[in-house]
Amino acid sequence: MYGDTEVMRKHAARLREQAERIRALADRVVARTDAVGWSGRAGDTMRATSRERATRLREAAARHEAAASSLEAHLQHTERLKESIAEAERRARALLDEGRLTGVEPPLAGHRDWLALAPPSGGPAGRD
User: Which ranges of the sequence are coiled-coil (predicted)?
Assistant: First the structure.
């Protein structure tokens, strides 16, 4: 019901791949510019401008990496939440089946409302 962590993983991997491509582009820009045999002020200015742009490209690559890391942290949190919901649902369904939890309309499968229904694991009603 909540975030598809496989899709998130693919997006994070794509962001990391883009970061690598951007860094490689920055390296190519600098290498090609340095290889030009242009001397004098105009050549120096061109090389300085290229290095400045390569720095900006590397900053963009770093932002891609940071976004990928943030997305991976979010997907880990999502996975833990989904696991907690599944465990709470399992415990609450067992209590419902045993008739020890009554007067409750069960939420949809995988919904976070299961967290409010099931007692913490190891509690008196939720012994495993």
Answer: 71-98
In a domain, 124, yes or no: no
Do 115 and 43 meet the contact criterion of CB atoms below 8 Å apart? no
8 Å CB contact between 91 and 113: no
- C-beta of residue 126 within 8 angstroms of C-beta of residue 91: yes
Per-residue pLDDT reduced to its tens digit, 29-77: 999 999 998 999 999 999 999 999 999 999 999 999 999 999 999 999 9
- Residue 62 placed within a domain: yes
Domain span including residue 20: 5-117
- pLDDT tens per residue, range 105-115: 999 999 999 99
